Every structure is written in C-alpha cells, then in structure tokens.
Amino acid sequence: MLWLSLLTAAIAPGMALLVYFYLKDRYDPEPVHMVARMFLFGALLVFPTMVLQRALVLGLGESPVLYSFVYSAGVEEFFKWFVLYFVLYKHAFFDEPYDGIVYSVAVSAGFATVENVFYALLNFVTFSDLLLRALLPVSGHALFGVSMGYHLGRAKFSQQREKRFLLFAICIPILYHGLFDYILLLRTNWMFLIAVFMVFLWVRSLRKVRKANDRSSRRHLHPQEEVKMSTFS
C-alpha cells in the first residue's frame, strides 16, 4: 500500500542516521535499550513542542527571525537539551564523552522521525519530497544533536568548565538550527546556501565525533583500533 511505503520512507532516514552515529562509537557501545528509550523520549517531545510553538505564534506573532530562532530552533533544542540533562546527564550509562553524541542523536532522531511521519501523513507528498526531507530537516536534526551531545560530553568530563559547556550544548544547536531554518525561508539562493551549510555541518560533526572518541578513557584498552585508525589517517 502507498501509505505504508510513505510511512516507511518517513521513518527510515532518522533510524539510519541513528545507527550510523551509534556505530561510530569506537570503544564502548551504549546499551540498545537505553538508546531506544532516548529515541522514544525524542519522539514524545514533538507533542509539547507543537503546543508551545502554537502558543508562541498566537502570543508573539510571526516573523522569519522569530520563527527560525525562537519558535523552531529555540523551543525544539531547549526541549531536547532539557530531556538530556535531566534524564541522562547524571545517569550511570553516560560514562564516556562520545555517549553524549549517541544519546543526543537518539533524542534528535526520535523527534525528527515523528515530525517526518506527521509531514508524510498530513500532506500530499511524494518519495522525492521525503528524500529531500531526509537530506535536509532529518539530517539537520541529527547534526544539531551531534553538537549538543559533544558539548554535553565535554561538560560531564570537564568539571572546571562544566557550566560553560552546558551553555554551549544548548546555544550552539539553537544557532545552527536557527540559521538552517532561516536559510530555508529565503526566497533567493536558498538551495546553494543550504547545500554549503549542510556540508559545513557534516564536516564539523564528523570532527566532533572523532574528538569525542579520542577523549575516551578506554582508548588504551584498544591498541589495535588505534593502529587501524593511524593506518587510514
């Protein structure tokens, strides 16, 4: 059935991105049940987010800047940060810098997946529409999650600068997300600008992935992994 195919196409990108970043954990993969739980938290965040966004629009009115940096980026990234900080940050499973990235991407992927499903079911979409969303909004959420998770990892294991990195963990994703949405609202040159911006986000995110893995306390337990990485670097 067509609707089932569209539903699968809407779910697949978020799951694929989550698996990709999960497998990037070189030293101590997280329990699948915990990752799934954070994915579910992210999925459930869509509902309070929609309510608050609607209330803000009614109360403050609409403008491209408000929509991009407050209603969309501000509200969505705050809720993600809130869940990660109060549910995960002091959890025993969060014991490596890269764990922040895994769990943050899980929350972001859950949010983006439900958002994508709503879009697919409530609009007359084609598979090309869903492909574009996979490359832009869904990937965007995952990459914002990498930034948030990286700085949460820095905060957790850099106690002298904990507050600074906790602030970075929410402010930088809001900035990236806001710029992303603002570019999409532009009527001229948006395709070129968003392509450049997505390349920037991917390059920066993969660097954060490498840095977070390099800060693992378990690196010395995997000398063969270090040899492999040095061979291909």
Automatic annotation (TrEMBL):
<feature type="transmembrane region" description="Helical">
    <location>
        <begin position="134"/>
        <end position="153"/>
    </location>
</feature>
<keyword id="KW-0645">Protease</keyword>
<feature type="transmembrane region" description="Helical">
    <location>
        <begin position="165"/>
        <end position="184"/>
    </location>
</feature>
<comment type="similarity">
    <text>Belongs to the protease PrsW family.</text>
</comment>
<comment type="function">
    <text>Involved in the degradation of specific anti-sigma factors.</text>
</comment>
<feature type="transmembrane region" description="Helical">
    <location>
        <begin position="69"/>
        <end position="89"/>
    </location>
</feature>
<feature type="transmembrane region" description="Helical">
    <location>
        <begin position="6"/>
        <end position="23"/>
    </location>
</feature>
<keyword id="KW-0472">Membrane</keyword>
<dbReference type="GO" id="GO:0006508">
    <property type="term" value="P:proteolysis"/>
</dbReference>
<protein>
    <recommendedName>
        <fullName>Protease PrsW</fullName>
        <ecNumber>3.4.-.-</ecNumber>
    </recommendedName>
</protein>
<keyword id="KW-1003">Cell membrane</keyword>
<dbReference type="Pfam" id="PF13367">
    <property type="entry name" value="PrsW-protease"/>
</dbReference>
<dbReference type="GO" id="GO:0008233">
    <property type="term" value="F:peptidase activity"/>
</dbReference>
<keyword id="KW-1133">Transmembrane helix</keyword>
<feature type="transmembrane region" description="Helical">
    <location>
        <begin position="190"/>
        <end position="206"/>
    </location>
</feature>
<feature type="transmembrane region" description="Helical">
    <location>
        <begin position="101"/>
        <end position="122"/>
    </location>
</feature>
<dbReference type="InterPro" id="IPR026898">
    <property type="entry name" value="PrsW"/>
</dbReference>
<feature type="transmembrane region" description="Helical">
    <location>
        <begin position="35"/>
        <end position="57"/>
    </location>
</feature>
<keyword id="KW-0378">Hydrolase</keyword>
<keyword id="KW-0812">Transmembrane</keyword>
<dbReference type="InterPro" id="IPR023596">
    <property type="entry name" value="Peptidase_PrsW_arch/bac"/>
</dbReference>
